[in-house]
Specification:
This protein is an alpha/beta fold and about 675 residues long. Helix content is about 30%, strand content about 20%. A hairpin with a 5-residue loop joins strand 4 and strand 5. Helix 3 crosses helix 4 and helix 15 crosses helix 17. Bound molecules: ligand 6R9. The site of ligand 6R9 has 21 residues, from helix 13, strand 20, strand 24 and strand 25.
Length: about 675
């Protein structure tokens, strides 16, 4: 424990013997799959048996069955130089061919790949044949711009079909994309472009967000302009610009090129060349809570195998009939694996939506589900809690009867939100898969399988077939059922990160050093195993609090707070406290409907008592602050570090990664 900041450091991340957390997350509701669903499910229990018997053989089968290999592999896993893994190393494939051409060649060219919905209400349907054509033209353009195998291309685009085409065109050439979320500033863009040494930037004039055009190209201009005069070698040679926002943009002659001036005119003849399975596919920067962002590196064959396998089995996908929708932006790993690579490798039909959930009004997402007859819906707990706050009448005014599978990702989902998702969105009938994974893992690692697993609200449950996970103590030993500890991955997996771009030492230190003697990957998450051996994620270990020597999880207390009828959303931090080491401090957003009827009086005290009743006196917050908003990163994760600053009466730290940087001054004022 760092007594200065009250932040647990990595040398002190034991999650107790589990006695106090035994009481927590007591959740006894169980939802077995319906017999009809189970009888027709894509996945079956035999997948676990097969993987159990021979893990590598299982992944070899998946890679052979799911993908087209230009040159078949003979070797499955090479783990001779840990932590640097090679999967299917002597095989060759083309990732874009697997996502496009092969579906057209199999006679599915007329199947819709993208049901694109722009925020202003414009829409486009793009078939597999059309998307293949677009990608071939773009690949020819990129080749003319000097892009070849191994070159890095930065992509800074809104959620439009050209974004998907850009990623696939880069992949088709064996080059490496680095997608930078459109909400990032010129500074972030610049540091990422520099770190990757990108040769080309693909951007748009702007995209639609909350009823306005949010400009993109000006940030690229600024990022590249700043370099002039710094004496740093410019790596970017060209900027390819899609017209989407219609906003006016500056133009650098010789550097900038309009997409529409070159792509439609280019030849649609382009033969996909094979590349080695370990050819790099993309770099994706993770924001990280401190320090320089890490460029997480993923490669081709293993990544695509696990993305496709999990997308098919975790979502019970039937490509011929399902309409799938993942609400993540392609700027995040969820968008890479479950908007682009998994769904397209499976030949799925999916919705791609440009805007925000509340524009022009709060029911927009439900309108999209109704309009396209979405059957599989994959979103984040933060969005679900936002919808809970608005009230169930909004989704209930729409026809959501097409839905049959629901998924959650990004943070622990509290049982209350899980139940609301099930009842209000899924009409009490759709299986919910709570999927745990990370940018680093590339694809889903822990999840129920619909039709196979009896689900439990709030638990991510079991590793997917072929994945080996454990919960261990600081000593690396299995904690056993009923106990809490640290989540580790005990065996290499196909879609694992292959490193941090340009920094092999940081890769080793960050993920492998902690359990070096066991050879485990340290995920940075706390977890608990219940009596059935199911896994409950407890949040990042840096969010684990120590109050009077008791280990408490922010996620557990938040879950209790959100279970109160008045609470819409809650964030909990451990703040330094003279007597107890750390004290629990809660920040709570109230439900508008509750406020209209009761007002906020006395609620802070009521909520303290409530948590004490729900979990035990040790978990009772020292302070409960009623606030209007919580500080979130652009991917929707609550930045507890900033709340800790407020709770400890310090000046608020770096807010540059917040989606809305003004939010902290509002919170500080409310707390004062
Ligand atoms: C896919 C993604 C990774 C971190 C991870 C964990 C949290 C993600 C979760 C979850 C509990 C889930 N996380 N899914 N926690 N239950 N189902 O979100 O990747 O942005 O890299 O974040 O998110 O803490 O370590 P990424």
């Amino acid at each position: 424990m760092n007594s200065q900041t009250g932040t647990p450091d990595h040398a002190d991340t034991r999650v107790g013997g589990g006695s106090e957390i035994d009481h927590l997350l007591e959740e006894t509701r169980r939802f077995p799959p319906s017999p009809e669903f189970a009888a027709n499910a894509v996945a079956g229990a035999e997948l676990y048996e097969r993987a159990q018997r021979d893990r590598e053989g299982f992944w070899a089968d998946q890679a052979r069955e799911l993908l087209h290999w230009h040159k078949p592999f003979t070797q499955v896993l090479d783990w001779s130089m840990p932590p640097f893994a090679k999967w299917y190393a002597d095989g060759e494939l083309n990732v874009a061919y697997n996502c496009l051409d092969r579906h057209v060649e199999a006679g599915h060219g007329d199947r819709v790949a993208l049901l694109w919905e722009g925020e202003p209400g414009d829409d486009r349907r793009i078939t597999y044949a059309e998307l293949t054509d677009e990608v071939k033209r773009l690949a020819n353009v990129l080749t003319d711009l000097g892009i070849g195998p191994g070159d890095r291309v930065a992509i800074y685009l809104p959620m439009i079909p050209e974004t998907v085409a850009a990623m696939l065109a880069v992949a088709r050439l064996g080059a490496i994309h680095s997608v930078i979320f459109g909400g990032f500033s010129a500074d972030s863009l610049r540091s990422r472009i520099d770190d990757a040494g990108a040769k080309l930037v693909i951007t748009a004039d702007g995209g639609w967000r909350k009823g306005k055009v949010s400009p993109l190209k000006p940030a690229v201009d600024q990022a590249l302009g700043e370099r002039n005069g710094l004496g740093v070698q410019e790596t970017v040679e060209h900027v390819l610009v899609v017209r989407r926002g219609g906003n006016e943009v500056d133009w650098v002659e010789g550097r900038d090129i309009w997409y529409h001036d070159v792509v439609p005119q280019a030849s649609a003849e382009h033969e996909a060349q094979p590349f080695e399975a370990e050819n790099p596919l993309f770099i994706l920067y993770t924001s990280g809570t401190t320090g320089k962002p890490k460029g997480i590196l993923h490669t081709s064959g293993g990544y695509l195998t696990q993305a496709q396998f999990t997308h098919r089995n975790v979502f019970d996908l039937r490509p011929e009939s399902d309409v799938y929708w993942c609400t993540a932006d392609v700027g995040w790993i969820t968008g890479h694996s479950y908007v682009v690579y998994g769904p397209l490798a499976n030949g799925a039909t999916q919705v791609l939506y440009e805007g925000t959930p509340e524009f022009p009004e709060p029911g927009r997402w439900w309108d999209v589900i109704e309009k396209y007859g979405v059957t599989i819906f994959y979103t984040a707990p933060t969005a679900i809690r936002g919808f809970m706050k608005q009230g169930r009448q909004i989704p209930q005014a729409r026809d959501l009867s097409s839905l049959r599978v629901l998924g959650s990702v990004g943070e622990p989902i509290n049982p209350e939100a899980w139940m609301w998702f099930r009842e209000v969105v899924g009409a009490g009938a759709c299986p919910i898969v709570d999927t745990w994974w990370q940018t680093e893992t590339g694809a889903i690692m822990i999840s129920a399988l619909p039709g196979v697993t009896e689900t439990k609200p709030g638990s991510a449950q079991v590793p997917v077939p072929g994945v080996s996970i454990d919960v261990v103590g600081e000593d690396g030993q299995h904690v056993g059922s009923g106990n809490g500890g640290l989540l580790v991955i005990t065996e290499p997996w196909p879609s694992m990160l292959r490193g941090i771009w340009g920094d092999p030492e940081r890769f080793r230190e960050t993920y492998w050093e902690k359990f070096e003697s066991q050879g485990y990957y340290f995920a940075g998450d706390g977890a608990r195993l219940d009596e059935d051996g199911d896994i409950w994620l407890l949040g990042r270990v840096d969010d684990v609090m120590n109050v009077s020597g008791h280990r408490l999880s922010t996620a557990e207390i938040e879950s209790a707070l959100v279970a109160h009828e008045a609470t819409a959303e809650a964030a909990v931090v451990g703040a330094a406290d003279e007597t107890t080491g750390q004290a629990v401090v809660a920040f709570v957003i109230l439900k508008e409907s509750y406020l209209r009827q009761h007002g906020p009086e006395g609620l802070a005290q009521q909520l303290r008592t409530w948590v004490g009743e729900q979990i035990g006196p040790i978990a009772r917050p020292r302070d409960v602050y009623i606030v209007g908003e919580l500080p979130k990163t652009r991917s929707g994760k609550i930045m507890r570090r900033l709340l800790r600053d407020v709770a400890e009466g310090r000046e608020v730290g770096d807010t540059t990664t917040l989606a809305d940087t003004a939010v902290m001054s509002v919170i500080s004022a409310q707390v004062r």
